[in-house]
Amino acid sequence: MKARSLTKAYDSEPPVEVLRGVNLDVERGERVAIVGPSGAGKSTLLNILGLLDEPSGGSLEILGSATHTASPARRDKLRSELLGFVFQDAHVLGHRTVAENIELKLAIRGVPRRQRFGLIAAILARVGLNHRSRSLGRLLSGGEKQRLAIARALVTTPGVLLADEPTGNLDDSNAGTVLELFDEAAKRGVAVLVITHDSRIADWADSSYLLIDGVLSTRK
Ligand SMILES: Nc1ncnc2c1ncn2[C@@H]1O[C@H](COP(=O)(O)OP(=O)(O)OP(=O)(O)O)[C@@H](O)[C@H]1O
């Protein structure tokens, strides 16, 4: 993923410049962390990198595909084929079971029905949720929802994984498991980008950056 001179401004009163010329490279197999104080523009940047929002200026390439010149339909296709998301509100479907939440993802990716059960069981075991596979999404705790979101993002292999505070609701043991899953994904060639307040994640990453007032600088 290659971002060049990304800017984002809102014409609100007063006008807000949220991102000021962000340059960022995340290679396949690399683990990158971005830390920054509240209001620095982290979620805005993640939404732009995830093709959920458009920048005011600059360019963004995802695994060699230019996105800033792409049509909305092409952006949707790139998002669903190349990106995996672990976002804070988790987007878990409350009226579907844990297993169904994951199966939907496999169905969208065209994984044949007979292969799905094994993949779902394996990833739920990894995040410690196999005993909840028949529970409805809305009955899960915050941390369980977060682990389900991680299972759903990693049951297939995305080109880029974008995670917003993925360990925010988790105890140390579950947070450790999440980082192990991210390590394994990186070893499979996934570009892993984590936005966090947790300096331990920044230490774990191969490269880390600081975002302050919309300006990104190298930390490590
Ligand atoms: N639609 C909007 N109109 C005007 N300002 C906005 C809009 N959306 C976000 N902002 C402002 O942009 C700034 C950055 O917001 P953002 O949510 O990206 O920060 P953040 O670093 O993720 O913060 P936190 O860690 O608290 O979630 C904030 O000052 C916010 O008020």
From TrEMBL:
Keyword vocabulary terms for this entry: ATP-binding, Nucleotide-binding, Transport
Protein name per UniProt: ABC transporter ATP-binding protein
Molecular function via GO: ATP binding
InterPro entries given in the database record: AAA+_ATPase, ABC_transporter-like_ATP-bd, ABC_transporter-like_CS, ABC_transpr_LolD-like, MacB-like_ATP-bd, P-loop_NTPase
Protein's UniProt keywords contain DNA repair: no
Claim: DNA damage is one of the keywords in the record: no
Residue stretches making up the ABC transporter domain: 1-220
Taxonomic superkingdom: Bacteria
